[in-house]
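Lecture 7, part B: from sequences to assemblies.

Below are the input chains for today's worked example.
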Amino acid sequence: MSYISWFAEVGLSARPQVGGKGASLGELQGAGIAVPPGFVVRTAAFERFLEAIEAEHPVRRHIESLRGEDLPAVTACCETVRRRLEEAPLPAELREQIEAAHARLCGAPGRALAVRSSATTEDAADASFAGLQDTYLWVPDLSQTLQRVRSCWASLYSVESVSYRRRRNLPEQAVAMAVVVQAMVDARTAGVMFTRSPTTGDRSVITIEGAWGLGSAVVGGEVTPDRWVLGKVTGEITVREISDKAICHAPASGGGIEARPVPQALRDAPCLSDEELQTLRAIARRVERHYGCPQDIEWAVERTSGEVLLLQSRPETVWSSKEAVPVARAAGNPLTHVMTIFGGRR
Amino acid sequence: MNRQEPPQGFPLPSSLKVLAGTERAQAAYPYTVQFGPEDDQRFWFYNSMHFPEPMSCFDMITAEAAYCALGAVNTRVHCLPTTLGIDHRIINGRVYIGGNAVTDPAEIARRTEQFQQRAFYYYENWEPLYEQWKRKMLALIRETEALPKPALPEFEPLEHVRAGRGIASNHYLLDTYQRVLEGYFRMWHHHFEFLLLGYGAYLTFFAFCKKAFPEIPDQTVARMVAGIEAEIFRPDEELRRLARRAVELGVDGQFTDGVPAAAVIRSLEASGAPGRQWLEELAVARDPWFNINVGDGFYHYHRSWNDDLSMPFAGLPGYIARVRAGESLERPFEKLQQERRTLIADYRELLGSEEERAAYDQMIALAHRVFPYVEGHKFYCEHWYTNVFFNKIRDFGALLAEHGFFAHAEDVFHLTHYELESAIIDLMNAWSTGSAARGPAHWPALIAERRAAIEQWARHETPPALGPVPDVIDDPAIVMLWGITRESLDTWLKAGSDDAGNEIRGFAASSGIVEGTARVVKSVQEINRLEEGDILVCQITNPTWAPIFQKIAGAVSDIGGSMSHAAIVAREFGLPAVVGTGTATSRIRDGQRVRVDGGRGVVTLL
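Predicted structure of the full complex, as structure tokens:
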């Protein structure tokens, strides 16, 4: 049984086995988009581990017996399950496979990793639920990697997640989690971009937001990012808002990340050049064309090489879910279109 | 009477006073354009787009002839469903206009039926009708050009007598004058024959794009539709060709910055065969392509390249330097065509559904069909014809000045066209009776008074609008030609309070951000002051300024929209431009550092 898949081996169709993030990274790499190298600990690994735990004590059946409103019971149950997931010994074959993949990915020791949950249910239907999953940055070694993989699994059993599932009476059997393990990008600049306007839904613009250092500062809202709006087709930069970027996220010495002050001279300086903005635009167009729908993308610019890497891309959900009637339809006599101008407001 | 005060802001016409000391100059305008008490019931706005400066008495003819023709086409020819014509009034030299909306649904329905029979016929037969239009227009131009120069010989030429002509020369003054006037009124009918339909088809596509892509810049839609070989590019293309020819003929050394055109021409004439060859080619290019005005052609002092070669000659040294550096200066037609095709296809791909794509295809096809007229008519009408027309009037000015009616030929433009006819008849009489004409004792004082009034009016701001604010503006002519909407009126009502800021807003005409020294240029005579990297600040950026676009770093104008020809030319030069600011020439000091953001339509005073 293989519990590991490398990005190159998976695509969107592998979502049930590798979760949304893992499938998307595999799909991007397959489409020729640069992503940081990595592998996915498949849902089968979670299933195998849970099976081992359930051998001692039922987990899923017990949760299904709870009522979502019964907060004390849910809290107590979650604590127990999470402690087991974080502390119980991993089945040997599972542990060996993760160790081997980790060694292969890290090569020379010291390469830091990102460990990110990759839920199978992470889609538009419960986007809020997806927000409860975790990402761990700058994980320094194997033992912490293993610990963070467990933390991702355990996040399925946060009080919020479990109450959410119970209130909707979702079957626990369908709950599974894959975990993405990938090389950490030492980002000079990072951020997000949307291939349609978040404010108007316009599909002809790309909004790019970025700040110095790791993207977590932008995603977590800890810094007001620089913001640009580019014409998707023309590349014309119609909005440039350069913010005072007081802090940036950087790797902490003992693993993880920390907020640091940005040197005075850089605070008000744009964190991307026009050339880099155009590179991001080109990448955004490729990704959107590949998926055939507007995307919500996380990106980073590598500190020394300047390479632009994608950390994630998922379908834009807000505007797509309220797709309206066509702006206009073809007319039997094309000339009748002019009546929108000449016919008056009726 | 139940008189309604405007809910906010705009003064009533009756509250607008003629400036003290200019009452007689104001009274010189005919009764038809004076505000009356009943005008307080209507909404009026100052047409600063076409008439940004106080009108001299004669130039008022442009408003009269243009609205006469515009209204005829809207009201009676194409029967626009929701609007009739546009009325105009003049106070303190400023032209205010008011639309005549149709609001009764039954009447709109009745007019819609008429409109579709008429306008749709034009759309369906656009190309042959436009070809016919060009023939009509060229014939009219040549007819007016061929009118004789007015002259009064001391004795009737003997050959006229022997031929038994029987009509003396004085009669032909009136005959020619009336033909000149008739031609001008006719030209404006031609001008509006297709115009509203053309803009309407363009705006149909424009409105669709704005709905489908709410953040699409106006100029991107304009780029999808704008023609690449439009007449409006020709004058500049001719100039580039002349620059190439100067190098090929080896006379390029004759062109240096700052040398007046007349001096260059004298030295070319003296330089032998190649110089004369170049001058011959210049003569060919001048007719018709130098018949392009340095303004919008609505004022008699918007002179053409032909009348004043300083504009085209100012551009030649720069073009010649580029030819020497190995540039071809040819516009890359193929590349521009390909870029436009890609732009259209890429936006099409981004639409939400096949249904939308089908509608997009239909609308852009119609916009492409009408656009050659929208772009082309300006050269024939506002440039070429008005140039011929005002020069014909100048001939009468010269004749009257010669007979002592006033000091200079240009003074003629301080007479209304009605007054000018009476002055001409005065001269005709004097020539026939042998008595002194009455004009020399009558006109000089009036002209001095009127000239002073225009100077005084020009120093005073005038309100952007008058009268009650309409709830909605549903008049396609007003929305299309002036870009006036209920939203823009609200902005005007708020304006004035933020004048102290360091930002001036206008239309985003051509993208890019640039900083430089502002050169506030009030007339074409000043263009030699522009230095490499300057920001041109002027009232109207006209395509005729193209030759100096190669030299400057950015352009800002008081008047103009994002689909104006100036904007199109600026985009082609990749020159950041903000147009239609309303106030740039009055708020920016000459020599001041400014930043032009052509993508956002903002000028920042630094």
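Note for the exam: Chain B touches chain A through 51 residues (CB under 8 Å). Keep this in mind when comparing with the next example.
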